[in-house]
Design goal:
With about 375 residues, the chain is of the alpha/beta class. It folds into two domains: about 130 residues, Carbamoyl-phosphate synthase small subunit, N-terminal domain (Glucose Oxidase, domain 1, 3-Layer(bba) Sandwich), CATH 3.50.30.20; about 220 residues, Class I glutamine amidotransferase (GATase) domain (Rossmann fold, 3-Layer(aba) Sandwich), CATH 3.40.50.880. It is about 25% helix and about 30% strand. It contains ten helices and 20 strands. The strands form four sheets. The protein has a ten-stranded mixed sheet, with helices on both faces. It has a six-stranded mixed sheet with strand order 1-7-5-3-2-8. Strands 4-6 form a two-stranded parallel ribbon. Helix 8 packs across helix 9. About 45% of the residues are buried.
Length: about 375
């Protein structure tokens, strides 16, 4: 039991505790639907310096179950800031805790693995808190994507943010139309597509292959999302049918979409000990041996042994240099590829922007 001080909302919250190794970008992290079901702890000691603005939200709400920091800063210094982090969390009903020895907790998670945690401003009895943790559903086998996906299809075509002008809205006519399966899609992904002349038709996670193909898209995008891909077997079925009925159609998947793509072609998914959460993870692109610094948020990965079997239709393209886990793959004969990490960054470096360009190249060839 680790005592601390409350900021943000009061109350009680439960989630799988993961640590994020980025120095900043907490606003994008908190509003990333991939963090649904998780309680985020920042390893950087001071959080809150830049406040909250209204432009850098990755979705319409905070999805993280709770927020853990070493030292909360309640006096932001940023010309874009509109409110403090604590005010924002209070508005969103999200509980935060500061004063925690985050170095100790990070080392504990690294040795013991990700684990459920609870923050409470109401109950201070260890036995009672432990009982609540044991009764929680966890994330294994749970379909969290269905809880964060859009309720109905919508179109998105708006470019990236620029200093002085904001988000680009007067874009030229789109060159391509892509159906984006929303498992918890971040807004900056859609902006990266728009920057390349791609109109995204965003559809709910349970959209069928027939419904997707009826849109007559130039490509299909499989988004990021939270939790265990095992709960999204319906999406794997849709992807498999699309590849059978329209094999020439380019498909690009990231994060949860990458894992679901692996499932669609027969791969098993493994849960990592403490996952990858941060904006500084080194990944090697194997054909060029170029190293990218990437943004990541996932607890699951495609098992690497499948790429040793010649019958598996994908080849390994990217590998994590910290733990050698699978970070990318491409189909041996079809225009289908995916990565485990987040090429849109936000927060993070832009080393992986070329993947969106590759998606455009595949659609141009089609």
């Amino acid at each position: 039991m680790l005592p601390g001080w409350n900021f943000g909302a009061e109350g009680e919250t439960i989630g799988e505790v993961v640590f994020h190794t980025g120095m900043t970008g907490y606003q994008e992290i908190l509003t990333d639907p991939s963090y649904h079901g998780q309680m985020v702890m920042m390893t950087y000691p001071q959080i809150g310096n830049t406040g909250i603005n209204l432009d850098d939200l990755e979705s319409k709400k905070v999805w993280a179950e709770g927020f853990v920091v070493r030292e909360y800063i309640d006096f932001p210094s940023n010309f874009r800031s509109k409110m403090t982090l604590s005010e924002y969390l209070k508005k969103e009903g999200v509980v935060g805790i500061e004063g925690i020895d985050t170095r100790f907790l990070t080392r504990h998670i690294r040795s013991q693995g990700s684990m459920p945690g609870i923050i409470s401003t109401e109950d201070f009895k260890p036995e009672s808190l432990l009982a609540k943790l044991k009764a929680d559903r966890g994330i294994i086998g749970i379909d969290l994507a269905i809880e964060v996906t859009c309720s109905r299809p919508y179109d998105f075509y708006q470019g990236s943010w620029q200093l002085g002008t904001g988000y680009k809205k007067n874009l030229p006519e789109p060159s391509f139309k892509v159906v984006a399966m929303d498992f918890g899609i971040k807004t900056n992904i859609l902006r990266k597509l728009s920057d390349r002349g791609i109109l995204a038709r965003v559809v709910p996670a349970k959209t069928t292959a027939e419904q997707i193909l009826s849109e007559k898209p130039d490509g299909v995008f499989l988004s990021n999302g939270p939790g265990d891909p095992a709960g999204c077997d319906y999406a794997a079925d849709a992807i498999r049918k699309i590849s059978e009925q329209k094999p020439e159609l380019p498909v690009f998947g990231i994060c949860l979409g990458h894992e679901i793509l692996g499932m669609a072609f027969g791969a098993d998914i493994e849960k990592l000990k403490f996952g990858h959460h941060g904006a500084n993870h080194p990944v090697m692109e194997l054909s060029s041996r170029k190293v990218e610094i990437t943004s990541q948020n996932h607890c699951f990965a495609v098992k690497p042994e499948y790429f040793e079997d010649t019958r598996f239709p994908f080849r390994l393209t990217h590998k994590n240099l910290n733990d050698q886990t699978v970070e990318g793959m491409e189909h041996k004969s079809l225009p289908i590829f995916s990565v485990q990490y987040h090429p849109e960054a936000s927060p993070g470096p832009r080393d992986s922007d070329y993947l969106y360009d590759h998606f455009v190249e595949l659609m141009e060839e089609k």
